[in-house]
Amino acid sequence: MGKGMIASLKEEIPTDKKIMITFCGGSVKKNGVYEQVKEALAGHQTIEFWGIEPNPAIETLRQAIELGKKENVDFLLAVGGGSVIDGTKLIAAGLKYEGDAWDLVLQGASYDCVPLGTVLTLPATGSEMNNGAVISRKETKEKYAFYSNYPVFSILDPEVTFSLPAHQVACGLADTFVHVMEQYLTKCGQSRIMDRWAEGILQTLIEIAPKIKENQMDYDLMADFMMSATMGLNGFIAMGVEQDWATHMIGHELTALHGITHGETLAMVLPGTMDVLREQKGDKIIQFGTRVMGINSGIRDARITEIIRKTEDFFRSLGLRTRLSEAGVTMETIDEIERRFNERNVHFGEDGLVDGATARKILLRVFE
Amino acid sequence: MGKGMIASLKEEIPTDKKIMITFCGGSVKKNGVYEQVKEALAGHQTIEFWGIEPNPAIETLRQAIELGKKENVDFLLAVGGGSVIDGTKLIAAGLKYEGDAWDLVLQGASYDCVPLGTVLTLPATGSEMNNGAVISRKETKEKYAFYSNYPVFSILDPEVTFSLPAHQVACGLADTFVHVMEQYLTKCGQSRIMDRWAEGILQTLIEIAPKIKENQMDYDLMADFMMSATMGLNGFIAMGVEQDWATHMIGHELTALHGITHGETLAMVLPGTMDVLREQKGDKIIQFGTRVMGINSGIRDARITEIIRKTEDFFRSLGLRTRLSEAGVTMETIDEIERRFNERNVHFGEDGLVDGATARKILLRVFE
What we know:
The structure is a homodimer.
Chain A: H1 9-12, E1 18-22, H2 27-30, H3 33-40, E2 45-49, H4 58-70, E3 75-80, H5 82-94, H6 101-107, E4 116-120, E5 132-137, E6 142-147, E7 153-156, H7 166-184, H8 192-214, H9 219-231, H10 246-258, H11 262-276, H12 282-293, H13 300-317, H14 331-344, H15 356-365
Parallel strand pairs in A: 1-2, 1-3, 3-4, 4-7
Antiparallel strand pairs in A: 5-6
């Protein structure tokens, strides 16, 4: 992590490797990242694969796998945000698999992979320092988690974030915030250190968000944002504590069905999850409110309501929509999500309480 | 980490390895750890080396290296606290070195080592998840840092701490506290996340210390203590920030010259370091006071004085001595430490300000 670190690529990858570099669109050509990468790898054999879209689709990744197999690629370098890195994790597994890579997504994991390095351009998902990915299938509007190997290295230069669109930064801040909440907002008393560290990231996000809105070119601010996103989902705040992830599971459906940016779906769903599960999560909501939001008094129920309202306010302060109807989501979508959850017989959340019926309640709570 | 995890040793070490298990004294035979280790490794080839003392001495470690070479040991398992683990790190390097292992200490590092696993019995040094060690030489009363490989695994069962002597627990709490301070109490504004995480460990220690005094058999409390000690010195709070370590360097001399337990030397020295460097470290002392100690008001200088007093109070609340004269340290010792620092021409601390003369000031400040 640091200024100019992309140049270190040349030492990170052995020169006898045939590298496929994966990208999203052309933004890396505008912000100088593409040139830095190509310059660093001038002495290496490289091919390029362009077009890994937000919510990386199996339809696209199959093409990359086909190309990589044809070219005998034995190292992957993902240059982009969480979508490019996630997609490249599936490519890494797909290159070692004979059949259709969607099989791997459905089986949920594959650890026989080509090694993968990353150059992160958008702080948000933590994919640069974890072994998870989320892969979509356009034709069926499905979106599932997939686990694979960790990147062998990741390069984080905060300067690459200076030119990001403000909406992407806002979604990245919301995504990071909710990643932390998924690992934190369960039960009290599991681990004081994990609680403090999660709260530390949340406090940081609340502190830096308005400052970033004022000046996205501030190196230290963007470094803190980048660090928050990586530390928010690399396992360092998840040691020995329960995790939730129901908000993400519901959010994924909103992305799959309506194409809403991932971070924004989380900003919509989280306040609903907190409200509907206020009884089960109440003690932790109070701890969060006290330590992170500075809400120290009031009778329990009113205090929880106030904490949820302040959480939604935070997302709105980022410039994000927090109600489904604002994003054109209809009651039919809620029906469909309930139907899907029932069909798959899911029970999400740390206590398995979020099934189709509870998901409906959560979505209705944040409908308008 | 967890209850009963020592049994997992059998899967952690390949059965074709010849293991030397290293211990301190007999306490592991009283608390059941020895039996658990032997039971887990019943199917392995093992030999034992006993007697790695607090502040592990090259004189002892040479014997272990000689035995290990004779027996063709190719795996080491340290069962104990930081001293046993530190000492075994030098054994691991010494087994691969032809000459006298003290050479390795003087050169400061060696990474050609036999693999090492650990079973931690005393939370304090973080040695179970870092690559450092401190090795002493009795004949010359010297004590130096040595760097080597990370343990390939470490097993942390909080139950093994239930029977520790209260003084060892107090020293472990102080050691952990000062480890964090060495990585935190430098300058403001380097990394919001690292600051929050360091503060999170300090807050935790201050919260659990009086509770542990009441009930050292509380699993959750001791798990939080164990986690604090490991996270306090495994690099997770040191990313991209300056470090100090002057307090440790002075403390090592007090141990070398007077045999005072490491954690207690730190409790003595830290308030002196804070006071003598109150100008350079003032902003961070204020941040520490505000966020960790709850000291939010007062004019700057009085506030810093109050924060230092409260820090010393915390160490005294653990039952530790905080003044040199209480431990029989004389003015001659201070002369000798100044002489040694001058002779070695040291400049410790994040800005290199702690030389012989400054060390004298620090020690005089906490003399009585």
